[in-house]
Design goal:
alpha/beta, Rossmann fold, 11 strands, 38% helix, NAD(P)-bd_dom, SDR family oxidoreductase, NAD(P)-bd_dom_sf
Length: 216
């Protein structure tokens, strides 16, 4: 299986690359900074240097050619301003999905955020609200495309060691989840047809990942 991950140097993406490559899959991580190539190689993948805020659809589709799965795990990051929330969390996600269609990569997984559907009801942190609105707009764009898509909304992310046990459902309620277990779940979703066409929430739970995905 050939998997292309947008945001290939992210904490979840590097974990996912290590998992997939360890199972014998070919992994390509899209990054904009060539200094990150070594980290992706150390995780068992190969880097493709491309800036999703500036690239055209054709360039992204070239990287996606012959892929079996496309995974969007990019994000502007907590230190970015409102403008980059739009250009990365919405714009880059839409570009990546469009390029997947063009390249004929049907299986498409997008990492969203818990609470994206409640962005318009939140008060307080304006930047976080902008971020959630961008994530929701990216979800709406993907849902309208001719792809076998899944949107995964993790809860609050932690760097705790993974337990391999999760709760994944259309609705889970708020909670937290380790980045280890998000990566493990994403790896399993690559080959979980029951997740196609669904928005799934993910938090820590009691069910082993493989069993939880089999029960979707």
């Amino acid at each position: 299986m050939r998997v292309v991950i947008a945001g290939g140097h992210g904490q979840i993406a590097l974990r996912l690359t290590k998992l997939l490559s360890g199972d014998g899959h070919e992994v390509v991580g899209l990054v904009r900074n060539p200094d990150h190539e070594a980290d992706i190689a150390a995780a068992g993948g190969r880097a493709a240097v491309l800036d999703l805020e500036r690239a055209g659809t054709d360039a992204v589709a070239d990287v996606l050619a012959k892929a079996d799965v496309a995974i969007f795990a990019a994000g502007a990051g907590p230190g970015s301003g409102n403008d980059r929330k739009d250009t990365v969390d919405r714009g880059a996600a839409a570009l990546f999905a469009e390029a997947s269609e063009q390249a004929g990569v049907r299986r498409h997984i997008q990492v969203g955020s818990m609470g994206a559907d409640r962005a318009d009801t939140l008060t307080g942190d304006e930047t976080f609200t902008v971020y959630l609105r961008a994530k929701k707009a990216a979800e709406d764009d993907l849902r309208g495309r001719d792809l076998d898509w899944t949107i995964l909304r993790p809860g609050h992310l932690t760097n705790d060691a993974g337990t391999g046990r999760i709760l994944i459902a259309d609705r889970t309620g708020d909670g937290s989840i380790s980045r280890d277990d998000v990566a493990l779940t994403l790896a399993g979703l690559c080959t979980t047809p029951a997740s196609i066409g669904r928005i799934l929430e993910l938090v820590a739970g009691e069910t082993p990942v493989a069993e939880a995905l089999a029960n979707l």
